[in-house]
Design goal:
Distance between the termini: 44 Å
Largest sheet: none
Radius of gyration: 19 Å
Helix content: 55-70%
Oligomer: single chain
Number of helices: 7
Number of strands: 0
Order of helices and strands: HHHHHHH
Structural class: mainly alpha
Length: 183
């Protein structure tokens, strides 16, 4: 999947404004998702696997005055890619966050979501997602999203459907709240 989609899906599922907020959503942000820090944290964790591997190299290319390109990438990019796209790495990061920064744990679940989504949207080849790297080269046999435009239409088309589902789920939850004074 493309990097923007990873940010959007991470925020949709693992922010208080999204599914992780339950029926009430981001009450503290008064419904304004851009004021909800968990939206930005979940989006950030959603793009982190790509930014720590490919993004860092593209930034270096730009600083040198080169044009960023997927052709001729140094071998270290693929090692970083496999490390950052491993459920093992994500589990270690989540464990560290659980101990030292517990409020970030739910938004950080965007990282394993990124890995799972890439495992089905990246087929055989250099960008295949080795889900248990470095312990195993186990992977799913996905489909390269960049070679199948229908896949891109599907995953972008699902976002508005998810948002509508969240909206109606929350609206339905509000109508079921007790009307007893004091609640």
């Amino acid at each position: 999947m493309d990097i923007l989609a990873h940010a959007m899906y991470g925020a949709t599922f693992f922010s208080r404004s999204g599914v992780a907020g339950g029926r009430r959503g981001a009450v503290a942000a008064r419904g304004a998702y851009w004021r909800d820090w968990t939206v930005w944290a979940a989006a950030g964790f959603g793009v982190l696997p790509d930014m720590t591997s490919i993004g860092a190299t593209f930034i270096q290319m730009l600083l040198r005055g080169d044009s960023p390109s997927f052709f001729g990438l140094p071998p270290r990019v693929f090692i970083l890619y496999h490390c950052s796209h491993s459920l093992v790495t994500a589990a270690v990061i989540l464990a560290v966050l659980w101990v030292f920064a517990r409020p970030l744990v739910v938004p950080a679940l965007s990282w394993p979501l990124h890995i799972l989504m890439d495992s089905v949207s990246h087929g055989e080849g250099r960008w295949q997602t080795l889900m248990l790297y470095p312990f195993s080269d186990w992977h799913l046999h996905g489909v390269n999203w960049w070679q199948h435009p229908g896949m891109m239409v599907f995953y972008w088309g699902m976002l508005p459907v998810l948002w509508l589902c969240i909206h109606f789920w929350r609206r339905r939850g509000k109508s079921r709240r007790p009307t007893t004074p004091g609640f």
